[in-house]
Fold:
Amino acid sequence: MFPNVPTGIFDVISQKAKYALRALVALAKANDSLMIGEIAARKNIPRKFLEQILLELKRHGIVQSRRGKLGGYALLMPADRITFGQVLRIVDGPIAPLPCLSRIAYRRCPDCQTEESCEIRRVFARVAESAREVLDRTSIADSLSSSLLDDTGRKARELATL
Structure:
C-alpha cells in the first residue's frame, strides 16, 4: 500500500493524523497560542510525537510557533480554512483506498488487468470520492460546531436502525 497509510480497512486514519486533528482543534478553541505541554495534556498526546506533528504542520503553513514567555503554537490559517482533507494529506498522504485511485500518488494495481473493467475499483472510486468530498468540505471550525455533532449523532442512530 502507501507509506504512512494504515493498512486495515477500518483504520481509516492513522493515530498521528488523529493527534494532528486534536491539536488543531485545541488551538482553534484557544484562540491564542498554546505551549506544546498544554496541548499534550489537554488532548492526551505524547509530547515528543506532538512536537514532530506540529513541526510538520508548521512547514505546511498551518500553524506558527512563537518563542518566549508568551510563546507556543497558534493557528497560522483561520480554522475555517483548514480542512480535514488537507491535514490528512499532510500527515498520512493520499486519501485513497487503492493506489490506482490516488490523485497524488497514483500506482496501477499489480493484480488488475484493466482499470476500466475492475469491479473493485469502481466501488472504491465511489467510496474515495465521497470521503474526499466530506473531508475537503469539513474544516476545523466546522468540527467545533454543535450542528455537525447533531448531524453525526442523527446519522449514527439512522445507521443503527438499518
